[in-house]
Amino acid sequence: GMGTVGIAAGAxxxxxxxxxxxxxxxxxxxxxxxxxxxxxxxxxxxxQVVLPDKEMVTYGHVSPEKATTIMEKHVVxxxxxxxxxxxx
Length: 88
What we know:
Largest sheet: 2 strands, antiparallel
Number of helices: 3
Number of strands: 2
Strand order of the largest sheet: 1-2
Distance between the termini: 15 Å
Order of helices and strands: HHEEH
Low-confidence stretches: none
Helix content: 25-40%
Radius of gyration: 12 Å
């Protein structure tokens, strides 16, 4: 989420970490979308992952380090990182 609350909580740095991970690992067929507020301000920065034929997964308090872990474990290897989940 890149609304004002997300940005204040560090969403720009989180987005940068995701983009750098995609670039440095030469990942293809990945769409990264910036959104505004999704209504869970207390969990910002929020990252949502949608994989083909899977339900959307929402992660909260995503630092750049957590973003890298989410990208590696969930996006690349299909393993949800349960300790970072937000149940909405």
